[in-house]
Amino acid sequence: MSASAVQEKRQLGDSSIQPHSNASSEGWHDEEKGQDDTRQNSVALDSHDAHDLETIETRSLAGSQLPPPPDGGLHAWLKVFGGFLVYINIWGFTLAYGTFQSYYTFTLLPDQSPSSISWIGTVQGWLLIVVGVLSGPLFDLGYFRSMLYIGNFLIVFGIMMLSLCKTYWQVFLAQGICMGLGAGLLYIPSLALVGIWFEKKRAVALGIVMSGIAVGGVIYIIMFDKLIHRAGFPWTIRAIGFVALACALLSFPALLSGSSILARPRKRRALFDASAVKDKLFLLFTACTFCNFLGYIVPYFYIPTFAQEKLGSSSSVSLYMLIGALAGSFFGRIGSGVMAHYVGSIVTWGLCALSSGILALCWISIETEASFIAFSVFWGFLSAALVTLPSAAFANICPDMSRLGTRLGMSWSVSSIATLIGSPIAGALLKTKANGETNFLGPQLWSGICLLVGSACLVVLWAVTKKTMNTGWRI
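== MFS monocarboxylate transporter-like protein ==
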């Protein structure tokens, strides 16, 4: 396929995913008055486009029946605020799991292996992604209110039940299953609502929402550190639960204000595209994300444990090392986004994967607290791109933009398996020396090698994309 043909096809796809670009932004106000004719006239799609209206999560879920995004105003920015609060609870709690990994290993569940304990956090992260993919069609069918209520209830209920847990299976059900299901129900609606209300400022709005990841992780880790020795585990978790409840209650009016139109069913997108399994670019992309996710989250889970067992750090210092990693990831998301704007998403993704893999191997030689603090901050900064850039990079390799949402969901579903098994495998590689000291060489090699393999796959993806799409090196 020639470059002009590919570009023409991508332009056709873009027209199907942004049906509001030339319409009046008054549609949202008209809808509140019940003027359905304005909403219908804002969509100019032929029958083929209407049938194939599927795109990346924040776009595909906007639906062809919706008025043009206002790109500002009180209701629009309330969606950003609400999404920010939701991300504090779902991803912030997930990336802060290293705190719980350390506490469970030394105090609450000392009879369980690190690998078994890792399953709790990875199941939570896996359900977040898988249920998030499946919740897209439910959003399109108008069930976003139900998902917001049920999702937030499951998260707060799971945290409160965690405060009562004393055995492994209880913690697994409360933190792994209950909170994972709740987070999955909130993952897509919180992004989709923001995507519906913004077009030109969408990147800025979503960036603010995703900053809730780092903010939530920092808040919950500091709370855990300050309260665990004073109030004990049950009341520490309950205090965290009250913060999560406050975030949930504040997010309801913010996300639901002015959005009654979204309760109406819209064209839902397909969950499977058979043609994708024959697309070499799709397969290469999935291989890249799979390898990266195998090694990406391992340091986040084991930073506190390594600091305490290997370096002799206090529990408080070890938790602040994890905070350093989350703080680094906040700036890493911004920096990688800026870099991707100039050199391309795949190029930036590949450079960050290579740097992260090398850094993970450098972890082997760390023997002092100062060097490990530096490692933690740099790890957060460099690895942030491994989860933020793939969605943007996927748009560069999908020849038909109208199918982009479906294909991305398929790829994430496969890659989520790597999120599920990566840390437990690393935990199984932990060995105890004859003197009783834990040897972290296995997890360190596992994380570094997986990321280096992922970066090699990205080189292949870049080369094949460049040849197939007949484009320059900035991809």
